[in-house]
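To illustrate the input format used throughout this study, we show a single complete record. The first block contains the structure-token representation of the backbone; no residue identities are included at this stage. The design step must infer an amino acid for every position from geometry alone.
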């Protein structure tokens, strides 16, 4: 016998297409590999009413993404409304690229509205699942004129049961220039600690109650004091978490 591997097939080799009645090999729609198939999600993470320290209002935090396991288009929105006025709204459009099983980079644009003139930034960051199941998101921002900002968000889900879940969350913000329109100074501007207890009637629908504590620091606290605002606020929240 001659060699069984390599080189050309012998003249009497079986035709691999002899029994397919002329059909040509082709892929079948809907049968792509799982890591190539596109999919998406819409998450309304926080839709809540806020009350405390003389303030009443609403918060919203939502995101939507579409793509495969390695590349996704990601849209985020985070806003606060107080006394019928939009105080701040951050909207980000990002390209998410997975670089390890639990981590991805995010690159794109951020646009701020409310509380003064609108502003646009370039955004670059990472998000993922840290050891011990901490959900981490760290993003740096740059805009023309040499203005920089940064945001770190860390969250954790503590399951009392499969439906009753306590979620603590910490957010820190920094920037290198003050902005009196928005009441922010330089360095560490503020920190917010939230604690929300939700009950998942279904995975996609969960009412919750909770409390948030916010503290302003440094020159941001000075600007708040000059304008008659509190440097620290403690507020109760009630809301819904919905995803599709």
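Output of the design step:
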């Amino acid at each position: 016998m001659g060699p069984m591997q390599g080189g050309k097939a012998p003249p009497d080799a079986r035709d691999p297409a002899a029994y397919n009645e002329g059909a040509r090999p082709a892929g079948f729609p809907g049968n792509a590999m799982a890591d190539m198939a596109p999919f998406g999600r819409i998450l309304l993470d926080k839709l809540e009413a806020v009350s405390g320290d003389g303030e009443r209002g609403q918060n919203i935090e939502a995101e939507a993404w579409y793509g495969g396991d390695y590349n996704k288009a990601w849209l985020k929105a985070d806003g606060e409304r107080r006394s019928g006025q939009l105080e701040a709204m951050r909207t980000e459009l990002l390209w998410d690229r997975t670089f390890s099983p639990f981590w991805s980079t995010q690159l794109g644009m951020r646009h701020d509205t409310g509380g003064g003139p609108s502003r646009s930034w370039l955004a670059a960051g990472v998000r993922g699942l840290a050891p011990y199941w901490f959900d981490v998101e760290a993003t740096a921002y740059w805009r023309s004129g040499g203005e920089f900002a940064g945001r770190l968000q860390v969250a954790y889900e503590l399951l009392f049961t499969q439906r009753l879940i306590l979620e603590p969350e910490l957010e820190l913000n920094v920037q290198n220039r003050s902005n009196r329109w928005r009441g922010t100074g330089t360095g560490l501007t503020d920190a917010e600690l939230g604690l929300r207890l939700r009950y998942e009637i279904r995975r996609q629908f969960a009412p919750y109650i909770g409390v948030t504590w916010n503290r302003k620091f440094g020159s941001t606290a000075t600007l708040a004091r000059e304008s008659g605002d509190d440097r620290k606020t403690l507020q109760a929240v009630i809301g819904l978490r919905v995803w599709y």
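Structural context for interpreting the output: Residues 218-226 form the longest helix (9 residues). The radius of gyration is 25 Å.
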